[in-house]
Amino acid sequence: MTPPRLPRPTDLVSAAPAMTPFVAPEELARRIGRSELLRLGANESAFGPSPRAIAAMRDAVTLTSWYGDPESLELRAALARRHRCTADEIVVASGIDDLMGLIVRAYCAPGEACVATRGTYPTLFYHLHAYGARAEFAEPEAEGALDPQAIVDAVGRSGAKLVYIANPDNPSGTFADRATLAQLRESLPDDVLLFLDEAYADFVPVDDLPLDMIDPRTIRTRTFSKAFGMAGARIGYALAAAEVIAVFQKLRLHFGVNRTGQIGALAALDDDAFLRGVVSEVERGRDDYYALAARLGLPTVRSFTNFVCVGIGTRVQAEAMVGALLEAGVFVRKPWAPPLDGYVRVTVGTVAERALLAERFVEALDRVREKAAW
């Protein structure tokens, strides 16, 4: 008997490699028989949202039966005041990952290349593969930092019309300053779109960031997931020319941003004192991690984010360290490509979490060193 013909995905989707970009800490905990882990692997904020945001979201829950504003008008107006632009130059979405998909769909056709530094945030590649595009890698400088000339060269050889730069970078934590980015932009052809993922920009002094000037050749994305402590609310936004935002209007899921998150984000913008406190505590936490690594004779990468990369040794040794920490109930991740694939990446926790990490980190490192006959 001839088997029935069943529905099939499109050829484009069938050709995309099967992948899960990130395994959630909840799943990792289940695998090792734990109910929870010390969560220091996803760069969530250990310091929570602003109390004002919590109160606003609590009050909003009773109207969860309502859709959110599909245009996020109030939030866009507040963001426009913050960035000295117009609301027509802002789009709100469910996090930067959502915006990545919109940008790839709109500006990177099937078969075309997007240039990115090897080792950078890998969710970009998930979107590229899903839409039939491809990554063209530029090699990084030492410690995973951006090499502007390598980016320009990669565009030249690939003909790419999209360049992705995470700045500060994830997973390295490195940062390219305003002048470096301005020079890179001018070195790229005008018809190449520069996509700046600024998820961690709130941890950088504002004078070092690109100026809040709308350039039709550049898209900048921001999030409430990091310093604002609202990762679960899924709120991100892009700053771009009005004509670019109009392109997204053709593609975006208009009711994809949840109502409670919109209200919480609006309240969070009105609490600069809380944000400054988080940034200060993260700075202290980074110093604690630098000191711990120095005490253990391990290198670190200077970070402009809420995490620090700590060198363990080889890639195999770093993978073993991630596993040893997981067995000890600590969730961390590691960079996926050289020159940092021998490092682990640790999110800044609270004072108590940092103290607990220090204990378990030393124990895990001892186990890894013993097995590796260091």
Offer a few descriptive terms:
alpha/beta; 2 domains; three-stranded antiparallel sheet; Aspartate Aminotransferase, domain 2
Q: Topology of this structure?
A:
Blueprint: H1 11-15, H2 25-31, E1 38-39, H3 51-60, H4 73-83, E2 90-93, H5 96-107, E3 113-117, H6 123-130, E4 134-138, H7 148-158, E5 162-166, H8 178-187, E6 193-197, E7 218-223, E8 236-239, H9 242-251, H10 259-268, H11 272-295, E9 300-301, E10 307-311, H12 315-327, E11 330-331, E12 343-347, H13 351-372
Parallel strand pairs: 1-11, 3-4, 3-5, 5-6, 6-7
Antiparallel strand pairs: 2-8, 7-8, 9-10, 10-12
Helix pairs in contact: 3-10, 5-6, 7-8, 12-13
What would you note in describing this structure?
The structure is a single chain. The protein is an alpha/beta fold. The longest helix is centred in the C-terminal third of the chain and has 24 residues, at 272-295. It is globular. The protein folds into 2 domains: 11-47 and 273-372, Alpha-Beta Complex (Aspartate Aminotransferase, domain 1); 51-268, Type I PLP-dependent aspartate aminotransferase-like (Major domain) (Aspartate Aminotransferase, domain 2), CATH 3.40.640. The model has no long low-confidence stretch (mean pLDDT 96). It has 13 helices and 12 strands. It starts with 10 loop residues before the first helix and ends with a helix.
